[in-house]
Write a structure and sequence with these properties.
With 146 residues, the protein is mostly helical. It has helices at 3-15, 19-26, 30-37, 45-54, 59-67, 78-106, 108-118, 122-142. The protein contains eight helices and no strands. It starts with a helix and ends with a helix. It holds the Pfam family HTH_3.
Length: 146
């Protein structure tokens, strides 16, 4: 399996995050990440290092991605894979909280939005978040922001 396939597998199956979220964490355009994941362009080495840090990959996960190999010495049992997936997600979310905790602490409006969203049913919450994301994207385009 090639690097681009292993990266996509890690993002989707282990972290369970969307391409747009991964791209933002890496500081690149989602279209560029799509090209890397599809194998249309080679991953730059510095971006792979940034991904290791941003997603808090273990050395084993990082080497497996670079070498296009399964983790460990071959097939893993479902229990070990599940445990490693849970650990990787926990590391990612911990780093995410560290990176954006100040924003939450310093933004009463954001905390208010989170409380409002938390009170909604999942389908309504998803709809509301998509509306907010759309408004933010529109604002960014109107004001030519990155």
């Amino acid at each position: 399996m090639a690097i681009h396939e292993k990266f996509k597998e890690f993002r989707e199956d282990v972290l369970q995050i969307r391409q747009r979220e991964a791209a933002r964490r890496l500081g690149i355009d989602p279209a560029a990440l799509s090209n890397y994941e599809l194998g249309k362009r080679d991953f730059p080495y510095d971006l792979l290092l940034k991904a290791k840090e941003a997603f808090n990959m273990t050395d084993e996960q990082y080497l497996a991605m670079l070498l296009g190999r399964p983790y460990g010495k071959g097939r893993k049992d479902a229990e070990r894979l599940s445990a490693e997936t849970n650990e990787a997600k926990a590391r990612y979310y911990s780093r995410f909280a560290d990176a954006y905790g100040d924003l939450i602490r310093d933004s009463p409006e954001l905390r208010e939005l989170i409380v409002l969203l938390a009170a909604q049913e999942p389908a309504v919450r998803r709809e509301m978040l998509n509306l907010v994301k759309g408004m933010v994207e529109m604002y960014r385009k109107m004001n030519r922001l990155p």
